[in-house]
From TrEMBL:
Keywords: Signal
Key word Signal present: yes
Name of the protein described by the UniProt record: Alpha/beta hydrolase
Presence of the UniProt keyword Signal in the record: yes
Top-level taxon of the source organism: Bacteria
Signal peptide: 1-21
Stored InterPro entries: AB_hydrolase_fold, DUF915_hydro-like, Membr_lipoprot_lipid_attach_CS
Length: 282
């Protein structure tokens, strides 16, 4: 009888301990769920990085190295475009879900935005022939200008992959017109620039062609709170197309301040790195 009582007491103690463990510790299933939520899922969608006027391999070289160091993406391919639009490549796309990155380099790096637009078309046609169906684009300065012109110039072209996301860094969408003396940033974002360039007028005319499911990120730089430019591109120009795009598309804008927000330093700014990475691979 004593053995039976002792056994029952033992079971009660064991049951009580088990109950305490359930209330103080997450289950294995919950722990697995937390781990999954804390880990971003990578994709095999390539992201093309397009430099601006007079850009070189160094223009996005540092950013791509930092992205790789942070484990955000993998630089797999360099596409070099000649002045006649032919393409040579270094490396190859692996097809892995590692957020592949492609650096685009224009040999004639002081040509027009219209030439860059056509060359970008050639790059994407090259990728489509090799089975790439979706891409992202990141452009600095004129790379952003020609990137947006590309998006608006070739609607429903079956030779082109679908562009999911487009990030523009310090891009002079309203040329170099500074409207900050006539309007504040809130008014600009809502209503567009108070004075427009021929470049912006082109965007207005072509906007009807834009795929409405492409998402946009517009980044601008200011040397300080009272200097409305990045030493080259006015803040109001870098954000000029927000009101035009937001009528049909999802648009995010942000301004960076300080010495690292200078035009050529924007793609060396780790805060910009983080903003671009969060946009591309949330």
């Amino acid at each position: 009888m004593k053995k039976i009582i002792a056994f029952v007491v033992f079971l009660l103690i064991l049951t009580g301990c088990s109950g305490n463990q359930k209330t103080t510790s997450p289950s294995a299933k919950t722990q697995r769920k937390l781990e999954i939520n804390l880990t971003s899922k990578k994709t095999k969608v390539p992201t093309l990085f397009v430099h601006g006027y007079s850009g070189t391999k160094n223009s996005f070289g540092g950013m791509l190295k930092r992205f790789e160091k942070n484990g955000w993406g993998k630089k797999e391919l360099i596409m070099t475009v000649t002045s006649i639009g032919s393409i040579s490549t270094t490396g190859s796309l692996s097809g892995k879900e590692d957020n592949p990155m492609i650096q685009v380099i224009f040999q004639d790096n002081k040509n027009t935005e219209w030439s860059q637009t056509k060359w970008l078309y050639n790059c994407l046609a090259f990728l489509k022939k090799r089975g790439v169906e979706e891409v992202n684009l990141v452009g600095h300065s004129m790379g952003g200008v020609s990137g947006l012109r590309y998006l608006m110039s070739y609607p429903n072209d079956i030779s082109q992959p679908k562009v999911l996301k487009f990030a523009a860094i310090g891009a002079p969408f309203n040329d170099f017109l500074d409207t900050s003396s006539a309007q504040n940033i809130a008014d600009l974002l809502k209503n567009g620039p108070s004075e427009v360039s021929s470049r912006y007028q082109d965007y207005e005319n072509l906007a009807v062609n834009l795929a409405q499911d492409t998402k946009f990120l517009l980044l601008a730089g200011q040397l300080d709170k009272n200097t409305f430019n990045d030493e080259m591109v006015p803040t109001t120009s870098a954000l000029a197309v927000n009101s035009l795009l937001k009528q049909t598309n999802v648009v995010t804008t942000k301004i960076f301040y300080g010495p690292k927000a200078q035009h050529s330093q924007l793609h060396e700014n780790e805060a910009v790195d983080q903003e671009v990475a969060n946009f591309l691979w949330p």
